[in-house]
Amino acid sequence: METTVDTALVKVPFDGRTIDIEYQWIGARRRHRPLVVFLHEGLGSVSMWRDFPRKLCEAGDFRGLVFSRYGYGRSTPRPPDEQWGVDFMHRQAREALPALFDALEIGPGRRHGKPWLLGHSDGGSIALIHAASFPDDVDGLTVLAPHIMVEDISVRSIAATRETYLHTDLRARLARHHAHVDSAFWGWNDIWLNADFRHWDLRPMLDHIRCPVLAVQGEDDEYGTMAQIEGIHRYAPQTVLLKLARCGHSPHRDQTGALTAASAAFITAHTSTLK
After folding, report:
1. What is the full DSSP assignment across the chain?
2. I need a surface site. Which of 36, 141, 212, 219 has the fewest CB within 10 A?
3. The whole model's pTM is what?
């Protein structure tokens, strides 16, 4: 069942222009509770999370911020002639996310304080890059099926998704979650299948992450292997690994209960904003 959410738009500067970013607050009245910012996957949006952000925030008595990145959901779409570069996740982590935080008063010494970042897939990679680039600005990370390097299994599955998009009802199903579905799909798919992207690698920067990290991977993930989260632990040894059986690329859908319990406990145990 699809979940309808009420969202708003906020204007932020990005790439020399002003764009609209779709966002939604959860539990905004819990002013002194930890703030969890949800970073969606490569084809995600606010609505694609369904009710997982609400369930996690209720379980931990947290506040939440859910938003759709540029090109996704109801946010400003990517123009058809704009091709994302190999550094598109770095730009999201170092430029777009700080601009959103500025607009919404999130960060050390600001109204909403330091956030905890919870990212899925590409969103997990963006969370890792942000924490490595601004190590004093986040309380911690929960990353679900993150990518730190490009594996053959990822490329094969993304190529298969391209065929599914062209020849099945996937486009229509995704259009429920994106105002400009082709903007969302091709921005993600084209760059992941670009030959230059095969050299994309986050491992050299992971040792800059100082905050607590919970890294989660499903044993049946069709887009990545355990080498992804084991690599995070190798470079950031404070990382706690959670490997989930009977779980594919979306732990928040395949193992909702286990992930909610583990994430809520980890955030509560490690956040500095509890009062």
Report:
1. -------EEEEEEETTEEEEEEEEEESTT-TTSPEEEEE--TT--TGGGTTHHHHHHHHHT-EEEEEPPTTSTTSPPPPTTPPPPTTHHHHIIIIIHHHHHHHHT-STTSTT-SEEEEEETHHHHHHHHHHHHSTTS-SEEEEES--SB--HHHHHHHHHHHHHHHHSTHHHHHTTT-TTHHHHHHHHHHHHTSGGGGG-B-GGGGGG--S-EEEEEETT-SS--THHHHHHHHHSTTEEEEEESS--S-HHHHTHHHHHHHHHHHHHHH-S---
2. 219
3. 0.96
